[in-house]
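Lecture 7 notes: from sequence to structure.
We start with the chain below.
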Amino acid sequence: MKILAFETSCDETGVAIVEDGRKIRANVLASQVAIHAKTGGIVPEIAAREHLRSIDPLVDDALATARLSLRELDAIAATVGPGLVGCLLVGASYGRALALSAGLPFIGVNHLEGHVYANWLLTGTDPQPEPELPAVVLVVSGAHSDLVVMEHHREFRLLGRTIDDAAGEAFDKAARLLGLGFPGGPEIERAARSGDPGSVPLPRAWLADSYDFSFSGLKTAVLRFVREHPDARAEDVAASFQKAVAEVLA
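Predicted structure tokens for the same chain:
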């Protein structure tokens, strides 16, 4: 089975063709990083408009890469949530319309499940065994920080999640406090390479008798430290912050 799939839950337009649930026939992306870097964060209306501009040519690119025509596909899929509403509407509406015009079934996908099932995808030509179930899965993506048990396919039991900021949100906010760029994750990682992760005493929120996470206190600690130590090296703060988040998630 060959499925053409769309991902527009946030600020990246992704189009892929996957065969038999594992083999990637095409995977093309239009990034909006440079656009949102100007505002230091994602503007939903701008992101949705950029999806509209990008999605049609990406479909052509994906079909050309896979050397397939629309009539050779078996289904159309798209992210239907969670995500930014306007952005989701672009991919889901385009996917539904394309499926209707081609006479193909449409599959709505929860994008957090998509993160989990990325572990089943084959990136090379050599066959690899499927991940074994049950499995404990940590999903850390953008506004989500969830720890779940995957009992069987598409059967998930929540163990814990963030009770305030997600890890990705904390990275973006910490990067902004340090005067680094957007998105915060890669910018903090880049700065941390030349920093001392033990130089800044930052808190870790270990929640008793719980698998939940909390990162708002860590973010506030970075804010206070930067205000009280304006001459501190951003690289040292970045390295200490990154270590604190990683230790809590681990």
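Points to note: The longest helix spans residues 44-66. The chain has two domains: 2-120, 132-250.
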